[in-house]
Amino acid sequence: MRTRYRRKWTAPLAMLACSALMLSGCADFDNTAAGQNFTPVNPPSPEVPPQVGPGGDAGDSGPGGPGRGNGPNQSQTPIPPPQGCKDFDKAVIATCLDTVAAVAAIPGDGTSPSALAGERKSGRIMLAAAGKDPADWATIPVDGSSDGGLSSLALSPGFAEDQLVFAYITTQSDNRVVRLAKGQAPKPVLTGIPKGTTGNRGVIGTDAKGALLVATGDAGNAGLAADPGSLAGKVLRIDTSGKPAPGNPTAGSAVFATGVHSPGGMCRDQTGSRLWLTDRLADKDVLYRLRGGQPLATPAWSWTDKPGVAGCADFVGATGYLTLTTSIAGNLQNLPVTPDGAVTGKPNVVMDGKVGKPPKTFGRLSAMSMVNPQMAVTGTLNKDGGAPVSSDDRVVIVTPSAGAGVNGKD
């Protein structure tokens, strides 16, 4: 049984986020994960939901250390504005890029976070690392003339050994998945994904069994999402050579789920028990809980104001929140979620330039990728319809902490 459920969460931070100035959403709650009919429960109560930077909003210390943030015990000293490509916010680990639509974090302990950052229009991939200038990693020829180009990156499931990276790209003739190593030309993995004037964005992720999950756009034709003979509008589960992965809902078929239109992000917890996909429909933005063989019909949450929901990071184990970026509204949305995947209330909104001490925003945000269970990275898209500052576009650290330590603890 699915029940439409809306309510005001009255915890202090949520009151800020759910004020008249904040975004609101509506949800068709899917509680099959809990194995029971939905009963309202108290939302998780971490001390502080995910915010930005190594110590929240990142202040005087480097990644992993204390800093100024949105937390209750933080300094209100404003961070100076960027000067050219120099950004004084310690949450920023790369500057002066162009439309960072794709990020792939390199796993680590968070002491010196790094990630690959892909520019949508140019196909250039840069290595971003805290305390270092961005370095060229590879360039993929792409067609970035519409909403396509280089739209997603994912490390190989065996990256520690093979150093391979997978990318979702638009070419002159199709959308496709390719793989490449540093400085090398890409090799096709899955080709022939329909291309259109819109609906070319795709997302790549991995599951806990070492398979690739590929969410494809509908190429501007919503009917393709339900067409079993088309690769468009699907979540595909393939092995690293592009073949249907073992254990798919239908043996010999790459289709894992149907009903995708314009995917923005995909994320999961470490065990793979919670798998999420964001999508943008004609009338709303949505978040889906992915389950193999089930069409994407009832969202776990929806946004009728269409903030451009993009990437996501499953911080549920650390904070009780699924954190999402938005590429139009330009904020973080923290959605309270239980360990079994049930959404328990409205998202609270941070990093929107309105709340926080001091308030802050990085503008339009794109994909997210987890460095570890308590840190992720995201990119900015301010050079693509936003209001860029001198250091845009950037790669930014997001953590669950808004104080000196995890969950705001000293």
From TrEMBL:
Segments forming domain Glucose/Sorbosone dehydrogenase: 116-279
Matches recorded under InterPro entries: 6-blade_b-propeller_TolB-like, Glc/Sorbosone_DH
Region (Disordered): 37-85
Top-level taxon of the source organism: Bacteria
Gly residues bias (residue ranges): 53-70
Keywords: Signal
Protein name, UniProt field: Glucose dehydrogenase
Keyword Ribonucleoprotein included in the entry's annotation: no
Keyword Signal in record: yes
PROSITE patterns (alphabetical): PROKAR_LIPOPROTEIN
Pro residues composition-biased segments: 41-52
Species of the source: Amycolatopsis alba DSM 44262
Signal peptide: 1-27
